[in-house]
Each structure stands twice: as C-alpha cells, then as structure tokens.
C-alpha cells in the first residue's frame, strides 16, 4: 500500500513538473513574439511620424502656390485700377469740380465715358446758327434744347422756353455761347469724344457739364457757372494732353 501511495504521489509531482515546464516554455516562446509585435508597433509609429513630414512639405508647397496665385490676382487687379481726382476752384468753392478717370484700355475708357450723364443725340427741327452751322432744336418740359456737332464735340445748349419763343432769340442766345467757346479754344482741343452741356439762362440748380475722352483717359468738369466751367475744362485738357 505504501508503495502504491508513493507511486501516486510521485506521478502527481511529475505531472506538476511537466506543467511548470510547459508553462515556462510557453512563456519563453511568447516573449519573442511580443518583441516582434512591439517592433512592428515601433515601425508603424515611425511610418506614421514620417507621413506628416511629407504632408508638411506638400502643405508648404501648396501655400506657395496659393501665395503666387494671390499675388498674380493682385497684379491683375492693379492693372485695372482706376484713379479719380476732384479739385475745387481757386476761389475755394466747389464750382467747378474736375473728375479724371484713367483706364488701362481704350474700350474701358469708352465704357466709362458712356456712363457719364452726357446729353443724348437730339432729334428735332433744323435750325441754322451763326456761321452757317446746322443744328436741331427740340422743346421739352419748359426747356429748349439746341444741339449741333463740331468735330468730335457734341454741343447742347439748354434755355428756358419763355426765352426762346422765336428762332431769332434762340440763335442770338446760342451765338453768345459760340463766341465764348471759340475765344476760350475749347473746341480746338483734340479729343476722341467730347460733350458740352451749357445752360444759357440762370437756373435754380444748373449743372453745366463738359466731358471728354482722350485715348484711355476720361475727364469731366461740372459747375454752376458755365464760363468758369469751360475755362476749367480747357485748362484740364491742356494738362492731360
């Protein structure tokens, strides 16, 4: 019986030893795998850390492209930049006022010129002014418009209907304006397009206007008194020429 008990206990001890040995071998085998896994994890972390570096290069290059594009667009805007100046008369009043607009192309200047409030081409009864100049006369809303072409200039004289009852009165009023225009040499100024709007009679809120285009420049002078307005336009045209 003692021998049987000893054999049983010895076998149990042997089984326990075998289990310990198996656990030890399993643990030793598991450790190299864990090292490999950790290396893979390290390598993957290195890969992940290397990607942002390349993305930073890409982002910096893309920002450079964007900056180049923005500078190019800024240059494009600067080429179409316009300037305007408003200068008061020497007397300190706002009569007349100069406005000068600059464009980069003739087409741009033409478009700007057409945005000004120039009188449209009139149609009406023919009338012959002094020096045999042919004009048209048109009445509307208490005023009479007399218009004619002189070279590149389109001239429009506006007067009250009560002061233009007869053709003789119309011709005499326009003759005074013609004389001043010739003396001040406005119509001899070279322009591509020009418009003159003058009120022959005192008005409550008159706006005498002289505008023109020379190549890529557009000029405009407005004022309540038409003679100073004409003088200012001649002076400004001389400076622009």
Helices and strands in order, then pairings?
Blueprint: H1 2-79, E1 97-102, H2 106-115, E2 125-128, E3 134-140, E4 143-150, E5 153-160, H3 167-184, E6 193-199, E7 208-214, E8 217-223, H4 226-240
Mean pLDDT: 74
Cα gyration radius (Å) = 47 Å
- Fraction of residues in β-strands: 15-25%
Task: Give the spatial strand order of the biggest sheet.
Answer: 1-8-7-6-5-4-3-2
Q: Which structural class matches the secondary elements?
A: alpha+beta
**What's the end-to-end separation, in Å?**
138 Å
| Fraction of residues in helix | 40-55%
Contiguous helical run count = 4
Description:
With 241 residues, the chain is of the alpha+beta class. It contains four helices and eight strands; from the N terminus they run H-E-H-E-E-E-E-H-E-E-E-H. It has helices at 2-79, 106-115, 167-184, 226-240, and strands spanning 97-102, 125-128, 134-140, 143-150, 153-160, 193-199, 208-214, 217-223. An eight-stranded mixed sheet has the order 1-8-7-6-5-4-3-2, with helices on both faces. A hairpin with a 5-residue loop joins strand 2 and strand 3. The longest helix has 78 residues, at 2-79. The chain is rod-shaped and about 150 Å long. The N and C termini lie far apart (138 Å). Mean pLDDT is 74; it is low at 32-79.
